[in-house]
Design goal:
Length: 456
C-alpha cells in the first residue's frame, strides 16, 4: 500500500510541477506572439493529443510522465514550407527571430513559474495551518558552558539567532542556513516556567556539512524523546491483544507482577516474550482486571520478537504539537519570504555540493522523492502541498543553474549575447550542451546510487 501511495504521490507531484513549469514558457511565449507548436507533458508514446484548430498549439500527454516540453516555431522549419517567399510571413512568430531579451524572458519563465507555484502552495499551507512538533530538547551536547538540563522542564528552542522558530522544521532550516553562511549559531530556549537560556553552539562549520545523518544530531542537539503512558490507544483485529480481551483505554499496571510505568516498559516485555504466557493487570473504568496475553512471534531483521498488535494512546502528543497558521494576507507575505529563503538556501547548498564542502549523500533521487511525496500525501493535503512547494523551489533553482541543456544554460548564453552584441557561436553552444549532458548524467547516477544504498 505504501509503495502504491508513493507512486501515486510521485506522479501527481511531477505532473503538477512540470505542467506549471512548461506553462510558464508557454504563457510568456504566447504573450510575445511566438507560435507554440506543441505543449507536451511526459515523454515517449503519445497517449492523448488535442488541437483546437490548424494554427493552434497541439496539446499532448506522453506515456512516461517524467518531464515535458514546449516546442516553439523556429525559422529553420519555415524554409521547408516556402523558400520563395521573402520574407516569410510567419517569420515574426519564430522563437529564434525574437530579440534576445524576449528569448531570455521566455526561457526564464519556467523556473520563475515554479517559484510562483511554491508561493501559492505555501500560502495554502499557511492559511490552512500546518501542525508540527514543538522543538523541545533533551540536551545540547556542544553548548558552552555545560548546562544541567534536568533543572528545566520542556526546554523549547523558540529562536535561532534572531529568527523565531515554532516547529522542528524551522529550527533545522535556520541551523542549516547559519552553518552554510559560517555564522555564529546561538539558540534561544525557554521552559514551561518561563525561564530562558541563551546557548552558543560550538561547531566546526567546515566539516559538519560533510557528516552523514541529520544536521541537528550532528551538531549535538538531542530532541526530547516523548514517552507515552501505558494506555492502549488501538488494537488490531485478530491479534494476541485482541484475543486476550484488551480494549482501547485500558491502562497496563503490571505484567507478571512487574510494575509498568511507561509504554516502553510494556513493549520491552512484549518483545522479550514471544509465545510466552503473560499475566496482565489492567485498569478499565477505575476497576482492575486480570488478563492473559500470549505475544505472537515475529522475525524482524533476523531477530525473533514478541508481537501483541497494540498502539499507544497518542493524546499526550497534543501537549507537544503546535499549529502554525496566518491570516490570508499574512500568509502571502510569509510565503514570499519563505520561498525566497528556501531558494537562496538551495543555491547555497548546491554550491557547497559542487565545491566539495557538503556531503554528496544528501542528493536524493526519484525513489526518495516518491517516498517523501507518498508519506506527505498520507498525512493530508496540507503536508502534500508543503512538499510540493519545496519540490517546486528545487525544480526552479535546478533549472536556473548555468548548465547547458538546462534553462540556466540558455540564459547564460543569452547574457553573453547581450554583452557582446551577437549570439554565442553554435559550435560553442553544442560543446556546452554535451558538457551539460555529462554533468546531469553524473548527478542522476549519483542520485540513483544514493537511493539504492538507502533502500537496500
Amino acid at each position: 500500500m505504501e509503495i502504491i501511495q508513493s507512486i501515486i504521490g510521485f506522479f501527481i507531484a511531477i505532473g503538477i510541477l512540470v505542467t506549471f513549469h512548461e506553462y510558464g514558457h508557454f504563457y510568456i511565449a504566447r504573450l510575445f506572439n511566438v507560435r507554440v507548436l506543441n505543449f507536451s507533458i511526459g515523454f515517449g508514446k503519445t497517449i492523448y493529443k488535442k488541437k483546437f484548430n490548424d494554427h493552434d498549439t497541439e496539446y499532448s500527454i506522453g506515456l512516461i510522465p517524467l518531464g515535458g516540453y514546449v516546442k516553439m516555431l523556429e525559422s529553420s522549419e519555415l524554409k521547408e514550407v516556402s523558400a520563395s517567399v521573402t520574407p516569410h510571413p510567419d517569420l515574426k512568430y519564430c522563437f529564434d527571430k525574437q530579440s534576445v531579451y524576449k528569448k531570455f524572458l521566455i526561457v526564464a519563465a519556467g523556473p520563475v513559474f515554479n517559484l510562483i507555484l511554491a508561493v501559492i502552495f505555501f500560502t495554502f499551507v499557511h492559511f490552512s495551518g500546518i501542525t508540527g512538533m514543538k522543538p523541545i530538547v533533551s540536551s545540547i551536547n556542544n553548548s558552552s558552558p555545560t548546562i544541567n538540563y534536568d533543572l528545566f522542564k520542556n526546554l523549547e528552542i523558540y529562536k535561532v539567532n534572531d529568527v523565531e522558530t515554532k516547529r522542528w522544521q524551522d529550527v533545522r532550516i535556520q541551523v542549516l542556513d547559519k552553518i552554510i553562511d559560517k555564522e555564529e549559531l546561538i539558540l534561544h530556549l525557554k521552559d514551561d516556567d518561563g525561564r530562558e537560556l541563551t546557548v552558543p553552539i560550538n561547531i566546526d562549520n567546515e566539516t559538519v556539512l560533510n557528516e552523514d545523518g541529520d544536521i541537528l544530531t550532528n551538531i549535538g542537539i538531542v530532541p526530547k524523546k516523548l514517552e507515552f503512558p501505558p494506555i492502549i490507544g488501538s488494537i488490531e483485529n485478530n491479534t494476541p491483544a485482541h484475543l486476550s480481551g484488551l480494549e482501547p483505554g485500558d491502562i497496563i499496571k503490571k505484567v507478571n507482577d512487574i510494575e509498568i510505568i511507561t509504554w516502553s516498559d510494556w513493549t520491552n516485555i512484549i518483545k522479550s516474550n514471544p509465545d510466552n504466557i503473560l499475566q496482565l493487570s489492567v485498569i478499565r473504568f477505575n476497576k482492575e482486571y486480570d488478563l492473559i496475553l500470549v505475544p505472537a512471534s515475529k522475525v524482524i531483521n533476523g531477530e525473533t520478537l514478541g508481537y501483541a498488535g497494540v498502539s499507544p494512546d497518542r493524546k499526550v502528543l497534543e501537549n507537544y504539537r503546535v499549529k502554525v497558521k496566518y491570516s490570508f494576507v499574512n500568509s502571502i507575505h510569509q510565503s514570499i519570504l519563505l520561498t525566497y529563503h528556501y531558494s537562496i538556501l538551495t543555491f547555497k547548498m548546491i554550491y557547497k555540493l559542487f565545491t566539495g564542502q557538503a556531503n554528496v549523500n544528501n542528493i536524493s533521487g526519484p525513489f526518495s522523492i516518491a517516498e517523501f511525496t507518498g508519506k506527505s500525501l498520507s498525512m493530508g493535503i496540507v503536508y502534500f502541498a508543503y512538499i510540493l512547494a519545496i519540490l517546486s523551489i528545487s525544480l526552479g533553482v535546478l533549472n536556473l543553474l548555468p548548465i547547458p541543456v538546462l534553462d540556466g544554460g540558455h540564459l547564460l548564453f543569452y547574457l553573453f549575447e547581450m554583452l557582446i552584441g551577437r549570439p554565442v557561436p553554435e559550435n560553442i553552444q553544442h560543446i556546452g550542451q554535451q558538457i551539460g549532458i555529462i554533468i546531469l548524467f553524473g548527478i542522476m547516477i549519483l542520485a540513483f546510487y544514493n537511493d539504492f544504498l538507502r533502500i537496500f
